[in-house]
């Protein structure tokens, strides 16, 4: 029988995976604060079950699956995305010398935010995390056929918003 992983190994996991988990969470939620909360919640859940992890090599996948499942449970909550009123609108971010790149990235992120949560999760996991159809199905607890249909519908919506130059048809040839 293998030994349970140590707290030091968990700390190493957090340092190694934080950035990747955050980027995935941000693409799924579209809000930096919500993304950070999601990553922290997912890592807390991962730590709560840390003694059950059989292999430290499998821990990043376990943490990512926990993140996706936690996001899915948030999506099911009725008021998870309520507007947050503020007295003053925030300034828009500007990056010197990279305005075009920033603008394109912002456009894609805004387009992703128009997708329903499951479609957004499928697109992020398929094309950002580069998971296979089977891996996405397993991570989200849905069938491979659902992954394919959700991907097709999501890419059609994104094409309508962004045009064919941004979303290539090769993405559907799996």
Mind describing the biggest β-sheet?
none
Our estimate of the beta-strand percent is under 5%
CATH topology of the largest domain: Rna Polymerase Sigma Factor, Chain: A
Q: Low-confidence parts, pLDDT < 50 over ≥5 residues?
A: 169-174
Question: What series of H and E elements makes up the topology?
Answer: HHHHHHH
Number of domains: 2
Shape: globular
- Find the structural class using helix and strand composition: mainly alpha
| Mean pLDDT level | 82
Can you tell me the CATH architecture of the largest domain?
A: Orthogonal Bundle
Number of separate strands: 0
Number of helices: 7
What is the terminal-to-terminal distance? 39 Å
Spatial extent as radius of gyration: 18 Å
Q: Looking at this structure, what is the CATH superfamily of the largest domain?
A: RNA polymerase sigma factor, region 2, helix turn helix motif
Structural notes for this entry:
With about 170 residues, this protein is mostly helical. It folds into two domains: about 5-75, Orthogonal Bundle (Rna Polymerase Sigma Factor, Chain: A), CATH 1.10.1740; about 100-170, Orthogonal Bundle (Arc Repressor Mutant, subunit A), CATH 1.10.10. Helix content is about 65%, strand content about 0%. The chain is built from seven helices and no strands. The protein has helices at about 5-30, 30-50, 60-75, 100-115, 115-130, 135-140, 145-160. The longest helix has 23 residues, at about 5-30. The chain is globular, with a radius of gyration of 18 Å. The N and C termini lie far apart (about 40 Å). Mean pLDDT is about 80; it is low at about 170-174.
């Amino acid at each position: 029988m293998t030994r349970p992983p140590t707290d030091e190994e968990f700390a190493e996991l957090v340092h190694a995976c934080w950035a990747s988990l955050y980027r995935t969470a941000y693409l799924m939620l579209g809000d930096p604060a919500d993304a950070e909360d999601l990553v922290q919640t997912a890592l807390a859940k991962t730590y709560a079950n840390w003694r059950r992890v059989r292999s430290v090599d499998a821990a990043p996948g376990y943490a990512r699956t926990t993140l996706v499942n936690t996001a899915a449970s948030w999506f099911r909550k009725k008021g998870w995305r309520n507007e947050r009123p503020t007295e003053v609108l925030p300034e828009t971010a500007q990056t010197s010398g990279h305005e075009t790149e920033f603008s394109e990235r912002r456009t894609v992120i805004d387009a992703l935010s128009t997708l329903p949560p499951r479609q957004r999760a499928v697109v992020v996991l398929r094309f950002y995390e580069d998971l296979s159809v089977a891996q996405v199905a397993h991570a989200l607890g849905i069938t491979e056929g659902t992954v394919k249909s959700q991907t097709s519908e999501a890419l059609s919506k994104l094409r309508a918003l962004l045009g064919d130059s941004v979303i290539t048809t090769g993405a559907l040839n799996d």
